[in-house]
Design brief:
Helix content: over 70%
Shape: elongated
Strand content: under 5%
Number of helices: 6
Radius of gyration: 28 Å
Oligomer: single chain
């Protein structure tokens, strides 16, 4: 067991797991932030090196697993990117932002009208005294 911990066949894949972990965490972020070009490159990279992890002797199953997880996460990100840019997600996002902005402005308008009515009543009372 101790020799495994000193082996590059162990630490290489372990340190490489940072990429799929980051990709999995990124699935919770806004799809607007996804780079289609980078996602495509990472899909090709991970699929290619998953294949080579099994082509070497001895087979490196830990590295293979790392690249399979990364390929899966990147395909998920690629789907999210596609749906955002080509599946109507961008328009829905902009529509939701516009509606929330409109509601905020509408509420600010109500507050301003209420203030103006309060000032008008106070002025009316001051004039009628």
């Amino acid at each position: 067991m101790l020799t495994i911990l000193r082996d590059a066949d162990f630490w290489g894949p372990v340190s490489n797991f940072g990429i799929p972990i980051a990709a999995i965490i990124d699935t919770q972020k806004d799809a607007e932030l996804i780079s289609g070009t980078m996602t495509g490159a990472l899909i090709v990279y991970s699929a290619t090196f998953a294949r080579y992890a099994l082509a070497v002797t001895p087979k490196n199953y830990l590295l293979f697993g790392c690249h399979v997880v990364n390929t899966s996460a990147q395909v998920t990100q690629g789907f999210r990117w596609y749906m955002y840019h080509h599946g109507g997600g961008k328009e829905k996002s902009l529509e939701a932002q516009a509606k929330s902005g409109f509601e905020a402005v509408k509420e600010e308008g109500r507050v301003a009208v209420d203030k103006a009515q309060g000032v008008a009543k106070a002025a009316e009372q001051a004039v009628s005294k």
